[in-house]
Design a protein that fits this description.
heterodimer, A: 450 residues, alpha+beta, Alpha-Beta Plaits, 2 domains, six-stranded antiparallel β-sheet, 13 helices, globular, B: alpha+beta, four-stranded antiparallel β-sheet, two-stranded antiparallel sheet, 4 helices
Chain lengths: 450, 103
């Protein structure tokens, strides 16, 4: 059986300016059968999806797409890009398509390109709710999928698996620009195109989705090759100073998921409970024993909605008497600002700002920073609420107070306008009839002569 | 006194979806892993965060990877209700487990 080689070119297309000379050009010499680059994440929070805002510096995205297209053209292999522009909205797919078109024109060539759109009209979700189809929240912190949650969403995307990408590759796409997509599905689709074992394809996806994060020492965004033979996957970093080890691949199998043993996706689940990890030499690790089983068709859906406008200020305190008396002061500020109709959050850096209620460490610091955030229906109201919070902190009184110059201090006296604030409204797995149908694929010839 | 921090090779936390934070401990060899595996229980891991074992989302010994995984429910979904988030990526929640003491 011939091996299938997949190149994970970068763990985050456009995240920083690329330097192809470090590992990518070396990876191309291995003659991979497909080049894959993921561009997105839900980690970046609800703002970018809800506002459909630009996440990366577009010039860095263009530089990344340029090297990826050149590599795909040189080797005559498909290029698969997932979750275009960070959130995988329709705007993001079109933005990347325009860059591909311009880059291809500049080279006097063209690419048969599949644009796969993942954004959904709210009517699509409304119909799922109305039909009473199962929709399971991925966290108990979000309730059932309700008409209210749908109405509160400004942008909704469904997350595609390998299936629509595999279909586009089967139709001869040289470039696939996928909207919101499961990272592992990008690799699984390429593996399936070359007839690789299905479980090995998803295992390769899990190993390669963050590129050089599968190796050590810790480096982001560098290239890694996965070689699939039967049910086995061998991973090898292309950056000379990196190596794959049992620890580094184990860490990748655990990354950003609740359990290392199972990974559910659209229509199926990867089972790693019998996984075997073998260090082949000082740079390569082989894995086998992954299993894949079909599940009823279902898709993850992500939605985010605007909750108002945000304003923010940062103050410091260097008086141990005030620090000791901080909680009642913060409660007073919260009450006063809330009564003005704004939502307010006060976080005390130096005490428990990072871990909140989970913090078990004793206090006892000599200085703290307080971040006050307000959210209100309009920016003017948010600013006013933030100024109020700041001035109440400035004039706070506490036992044994001796200073009269101001209870907290700051580097600037104006507050910072942050613009619209968003929250996650939908993060559910919804039952669908078909895991391909909600995604619209459009084949375009981009570049010269198009 | 030995802490988990002294013998683990990778200690980190990250969101596992928007509603959970997961902590990964990966050990360099079987001896270190066995030492941790026999002493880090769900009760001890949970207590480091002021939680009970029943409140954990998941707790797994990953033998093939010489690793332990502890997943906690987030207090609010990532990003909160538009404000109030303390750690958007969940990447700063690992140190209480790093500080657990081992015999």
């Amino acid at each position: 059986m011939s091996a299938v080689r997949l190149l994970a070119a970068t763990g985050g297309l456009g995240f920083t300016p690329p330097d192809p000379s470090r590992s990518y050009l070396r990876a191309l010499e291995r003659r991979p059968d497909a080049i894959v680059a993921d561009a997105g994440s839900a980690d970046i929070g609800p703002f970018f999806l809800g506002a459909d805002a630009v996440y990366n510096e577009p010039e860095w995205e263009r530089l990344d797409l340029e090297r990826l297209l050149d590599g795909a053209a040189r080797l005559d292999v498909p290029l698969i890009v997932g979750s275009c522009a960070g959130t995988g909205t329709d705007r993001g797919v079109e933005a990347y398509a325009q860059m591909v078109d311009e880059l291809a024109r500049a080279r006097g060539r063209s690419f048969r390109t599949a644009l796969i759109f993942a954004q959904q009209e709210s009517s699509w979700l409304e119909q799922i709710v109305a039909d009473g189809r199962p929709a399971r929240a991925l966290t108990p912190l979000l309730g059932e999928l309700s008409p209210g949650a749908v109405a509160a969403s400004d942008t909704v995307v469904a997350v595609m698996g390998a299936q629509p990408i595999r279909a586009a590759l089967g139709e001869g796409a040289q470039v696939v620009l996928a909207g919101r997509a499961c990272d592992d599905g990008l690799f699984a689709a390429a593996a399936q195109l070359h007839g690789a074992d299905r479980a090995a394809g998803y295992l390769a996806g899990k190993l390669l989705e963050n590129a050089s994060l599968v190796a050590e020492p810790f480096v982001l965004r560098e290239s890694v090759i996965g070689e699939l033979t039967g049910g086995s996957v061998i991973v090898e970093p292309m950056l000379p100073e990196q190596r794959c080890t049992r620890a580094s691949v184990a860490a990748q199998l655990m990354y950003e998921r609740a359990t290392p043993f199972k990974q559910a996706g659209p229509g199926g689940e990867l089972d790693l409970s019998q996984i075997q990890i073998e260090e082949l030499d000082d740079r390569r690790v082989a894995l086998r024993g992954a299993r894949y089983r079909d599940l009823p068709p279902a898709l993850k859906v992500e939605g985010a909605g605007c909750v108002g406008q945000r304003s923010l200020c940062i103050v410091g305190c260097r008086d141990p008497r005030m620090i000791a008396a901080l909680d009642p002061i913060l409660d007073e500020v919260r009450t006063a600002v809330s009564s003005e109709g704004a939502k307010v959050s006060l976080k005390v850096y130096g005490r428990d700002a990072v871990m909140g209620d989970l913090e078990q460490a004793p206090g006892g610091v000599h200085e703290v920073g307080i971040v006050a955030e307000t959210v209100a229906p309009t920016q003017t109201e948010a600013n006013r609420a933030c100024v109020l919070a700041k001035r109440l902190l400035f004039s706070a009184k506490y036992p044994l107070q001796k200073q009269t110059g101001g209870s907290v201090l700051s580097t600037i006296d104006e507050v910072v306008e942050c613009g619209p604030a968003y929250r996650w409204t939908v993060n559910h797995v919804v039952s669908v009839r078909d895991v391909v149908e909600p995604f619209r694929t459009e084949m375009r010839t981009l570049g010269a002569g198009a | 006194m030995t802490r988990v921090d002294d013998i683990a090779r990778i200690i980190r936390s990250k969101n596992a979806g928007i509603g959970h934070v997961t902590v990964d401990l990966v050990f360099p060899d079987r001896d270190a892993y066995e030492r941790a595996r026999t002493q880090i229980t769900p009760d001890r891991a949970a207590a480091a965060y002021g939680l009970t074992a029943a409140e954990l989302t998941a707790f797994e010994y990953f033998d093939a990877g010489l690793a332990i995984k502890v997943t906690l429910p987030r207090q609010e979904v990532a990003g909160g209700m538009g404000l109030g988030e303390t750690d958007l990526y969940g990447s700063g929640q690992y140190f209480p487990i790093a500080e657990l003491e081992l015999e």
